[in-house]
Amino acid sequence: MAVEPVTAVYASTAVRAQQTAAPLAARLGLSVEVVDGVHEVFCGDLEGRADEAAREMFDEVYTAWADGDLGRRLPGGESAIELRERFLPLSPTCGPGTPLRRTAYWCWSATVRRSGWRPAR
């Protein structure tokens, strides 16, 4: 970051993502910009559950996504295709018409992995 300074710090709507981004933003004299649409995978009926059956169902769908079945849907939730449709238009510029700039981005890593987004080099 010393070579190319960060010019913006983004976080998802998740409070923990914003809290994680805050120290870097403060150090750089920037604010954390919250971006709608880059939030975690919407788990639908599994949301808030911590039981073994819910974990197994999530793992089954997540594995299907990793194997290329992007249309597989979490029960009452979203598919990896829908995840991509909401996430990719926001990255890496975080909004239409926003110039490409060096940024720091906080959201759930699975969101990034399953969206298929790759940073520009």
Fold and architecture overview:
This protein is an alpha/beta fold. It is elongated, with a radius of gyration of 16 Å. The protein has four helices and three strands, in the order E-H-E-H-H-E-H. It has a single domain (8-115), classed as Phosphoglycerate mutase-like (Rossmann fold). The relative contact order is 0.22. A three-stranded parallel sheet has the order 2-1-3, with helices on one face. It has helices spanning 15-28, 52-66, 80-87, 109-115; strands at residues 8-11, 32-34, 103-106. Helix 3 packs across helix 4 (109-115).
Write a brief structural summary:
The protein is of the alpha/beta class and 121 residues long. It is built from 4 helices and 3 strands. The chain has one domain (8-115): Phosphoglycerate mutase-like (Rossmann fold, 3-Layer(aba) Sandwich).
CATH class group: Alpha Beta
The sequence of SSEs as H and E is: EHEHHEH
Largest sheet: 3 strands, parallel
**The CATH H-level homologous superfamily:** Phosphoglycerate mutase-like
In the CATH hierarchy, the third-tier topology is known as Rossmann fold
Named at the architecture level, the CATH assignment is 3-Layer(aba) Sandwich
What is the total tally of β strands? 3
- From the alpha carbons, calculate the radius of gyration and give it in angstroms: 16 Å
Total helical segments? 4
- List unreliable stretches of 5+ residues: 117-121
Structural class: alpha/beta
Biggest sheet, spatial arrangement of strands: 2-1-3
Helix content: 25-40%
End-to-end distance, in Å? 14 Å
* Cα shape: elongated
β-sheet strand percentage = 5-15%
Overall number of structural domains = 1
What's the mean pLDDT score? Answer: 77
